[in-house]
Amino acid sequence: MDERFFTKQKKTKILETIEWDDLWWEHADDKDKKARVLLIGDSISRGYRHAVNMLFDQNIYADSLATSKSLDNASYFTLINYVISQQPDCQVIHFNNGLHGWHLSIQEYRECYQKFIRFFQEMYPEKKLILALSTPVRKTDDLTAMDERNADVLQRNEAVRAIAEVSNLPVNDFYEALIDHPEYFTADGVHLKEDGYQVLARICADSIRKELYKESGFNGK
């Protein structure tokens, strides 16, 4: 195991008031399915996990690691390893991170994100990796207007696109899918109503199927 990914960060990580992890293994006892994938992200990814599994209709199982951890939290790597150790045969990892760790500058975010790409490529080279752009952040008192943090979201998404291009990785544009639909958002301006999660789930599921087809001719539903 590469210790570079598990040493304490030089930067003192800043924790949120409440830190949380939500781990989910779909039909964990079933070892005979055609494919198993892993969704990694935050509360947005937790929101579309169920819808993704419904779209897969038990032809593919989507496990989930949802967390508030910022990209500069070194224990994030340990947590990912733990989740994958429970279902090591997952074939695709879908990574969505950008709405936590607001203390990070754009340069720090970019550097941390690049470290995650290296982690996935070096620790799990056999697994296909899909990146997702972060969703918009709207004002709580006017969902048609953007919160000031949305400027950071745009910069982070630009960084992810650039990293994906260099690494030749597919990207799901969740931002574009939601930017013209304030009606999909709840009153907090961040989380989504069911219609919004359904939109993201379809994008996520389609991209995962594409990677599975590409890899092995998988023809699951």
Task: Give a verbal description of the structure.
With 221 residues, the chain is α/β, with parallel strands linked by helices. The protein has one domain: 3-Layer(aba) Sandwich (Rossmann fold), CATH 3.40.50. It is built from 6 helices and 8 strands, in the order ββαβαβαβββαβαα. It has a 6-stranded mixed β-sheet, with helices on both faces. It has a two-stranded antiparallel ribbon with strand order 6-7. The longest helix has 23 residues. The protein is globular, with a radius of gyration of 17 Å. The protein starts with 20 loop residues before the first strand and ends in a 5-residue tail after the last helix. About 2% of the residues have low confidence.
Structural key phrases:
221 residues, alpha/beta, Rossmann fold, 6-stranded mixed beta sheet, two-stranded antiparallel sheet, 8 strands, globular
Main beta sheet:
6 strands, mixed
Strand order of the largest sheet: 1-3-2-4-5-8
Question: Given the structure, what is the number of helices?
Answer: 6
CATH class, named Alpha Beta
Dominant shape: globular
Residue fraction in strands: 15-25%
* Spatial gap, N to C terminus: 36 Å
Outline the low-pLDDT stretches: 7-11
Q: Please, what is the CATH homologous superfamily?
A: SGNH hydrolase
The count of DSSP E runs of length 2 or more, i.e. the number of strands, is 8
Reported CATH architecture: 3-Layer(aba) Sandwich
Total domain count: 1
Return the average pLDDT rounded to an integer: 92
The class by helix and strand makeup works out as alpha/beta
Order of helices and strands: EEHEHEHEEEHEHH
Helix content: 40-55%
**Cα-based radius of gyration, to the nearest Å:** 17 Å
**Annotated CATH topology:** Rossmann fold
